[in-house]
Write a structure and sequence with these properties.
With about 290 residues, the chain is an alpha/beta fold. The protein has two domains: about 55 residues, no CATH class; about 200 residues, Uncharacterised protein PF01937, DUF89, domain 3 (Rossmann fold, 3-Layer(aba) Sandwich). About 45% of the residues lie in helices and about 10% in strands. Strands 1-7-6-5-2-3-4 form a seven-stranded mixed β-sheet, with helices on both faces. The chain is globular, with a radius of gyration of 18 Å. The model has no long low-confidence stretch (mean pLDDT about 90). This is Damage-control phosphatase ARMT1-like metal-binding domain-containing protein. InterPro entries: ARMT-1-like_metal-bd_sf (IPR036075), ARMT1-like_metal-bd (IPR002791), PH1575-like (IPR014444). Pfam families: ARMT1-like_dom.
Amino acid sequence: MHSGIECLPCAIRQCRQIVKMVGGNEELERKAVERAGAVAKGLSLDEPPSTYTSRILLAVMSLLDSSDPFKQMKAEQNRAARPVAEKADREIAESPEPLKTALMLAAAGNVIDPGPRHSFSIDDALKELQFAHDDSDMLIERLDHSKRIMYILDNSGEVMFDILVLKRLPKADLVIVARPGPILNDVTVNEAKELGLEEFGRVIGTGSQFLGVDLATVSDEFRKVYENADVVIAKGHANFESLVGRGRDGFFVLTAKCELVAEPLGVKLGESACFYSEGSSAEPLNPSF
C-alpha cells in the first residue's frame, strides 16, 4: 500500500515524542523536526507508510545519544501486559475455539502502540473480542495442513498476547520474526529470545532496520524462509502496510489505528481484523528498487 499525506505529520509527531523520551531540550526537538522535514522532501508517497516513516525516524535517531529511546517503555509494556495475558491464557482453556480466541486477543494487544495519532485502550479492546473482518477460519484450516509457518512480531507488550497464539499453533517448523535492532517499541530479536520465544520456534530478524518488512532490504535468511513458508502470519500496522498485496499471500492480524489502514481492511477505527491477502503475482518478491 502507498503512504498518504497524513504520514508526514504522523512521523514528525513520533520524532518529537522520541526526543522527549530521551530528555531532549527544545533545541534538539527543533533540529529533529527540521531533519524530518528535510528527509521527507526526498521521499515518495508511493512507498509503504512503514518505509516512509522508517526513513524519517532513522534520520532523526541519528541525532540522539540513545540507540534505543523506547527501551524502558518496552520493558514496562511487557511487565504490564504479562499478568493480563496470563489471565487470558487461563480463560482460553474454556473457549470452544482456543486458537481463534488467542488470535483475537493478539489483535487486541496490537493497540499497545505509541505510534498512531489515535490512542486506544487495551482494556476496551479486550472487552470487545471480535474480528470486524474475519478470515481466521481460513487461517486455522490452512495451519492444520502446514509444515512451515512464519509468525512476524510487532510491538512490545503486544508480544505477550502473541505468545497465546504461538503456544497453540499446530506442530510445524515455526519461525518467529522480530526486528534486528531497535526502532520505536518494536520487539527485537534479542528481546524475543529473552522473553523465551525460542521455546516455540526459531527466532530470526528481518535483516532490515525498517519498520515492517521492507522487501528491498531484508536479509537472504529472512527472504528464503518467507518465500518457502506455507503460511505467513504478520502482526500489526507496519507489517500490513509493507506486505499486503505484495508478492506472496499472507494473513494479517491487527487493530486499525489510523484511517489509512482501516480503509483497505474494510473496518472502522479501533476494530480488529484477521485479513487474508492473496498477494500479487505482478509484485516481485525480490524488488530491485
